[in-house]
Amino acid sequence: MSAGFDKQILAQKLSKLNSSQQTIETLSHWCVFHHRCCQQVVETWDSEFHAAPVERRVSLLYLANDIMQNSRKEGNGYIAEFMRVIPAALNGVLTVRDDFGRNVPKRLADYSIKHACCFASNQHRSMEAENSLTTNV
Fold it and tell me: Any idea what the CATH number is for the domain that residue 115 is in?
């Protein structure tokens, strides 16, 4: 567990999140710093997302997107964890009737699908490489 990580602190930070780029990036960097706790971060994000009003959910989706993009150099932990919860989150938001409410999640869904495919492809390549190492020994 990363030093200084606390689910309650994250929940407070998520409750103060707004749609400004600065607050999203600041919280994203904090989450990436605590990448060893990615499962707890995503679980907390998911519970906050489902409790949030529709207007705040877009900011939370932007946050998830920023975390996934900025955490790639730390490994695939966040991408794998978010891939478990993002489909249900997007499904709930895509039913919103206004264009903004549909377009933002659609862009994130497109990004998520692209990276889920890349994640699966990378996992497959890793397994193939591992298999070739064990068969060549």
Answer: 1.25.40.90
User: Is there a domain that residue 1 lies in?
Assistant: no
**pTM of this prediction exceeds 0.90:** no
Reduced DSSP (H G I as helix, E B as strand, rest coil) percent helix, strand, coil of the chain, to 5: 85, 0, 15
Nearest-angstrom CA–CA distance, 69 and 115: 9
The pLDDT tens digits for 43-62 are 999 999 999 988 888 899 99
Is residue 131 over pLDDT 60? no
Q: Is the dihedral of CA 90, 83, 61, 10 positive or negative?
A: positive
Number of domains in the chain: 1
Taking alpha carbons only, the member of 25, 67, 26, 23 closest to residue 45 is 67
21 in any annotated domain = yes
Contacts (Cβ under 8 Å, ≥6 apart) of 65 = 108, 111
Check pLDDT > 50 for residue 1.
no
Give me the domain span that covers residue 100: 7-136
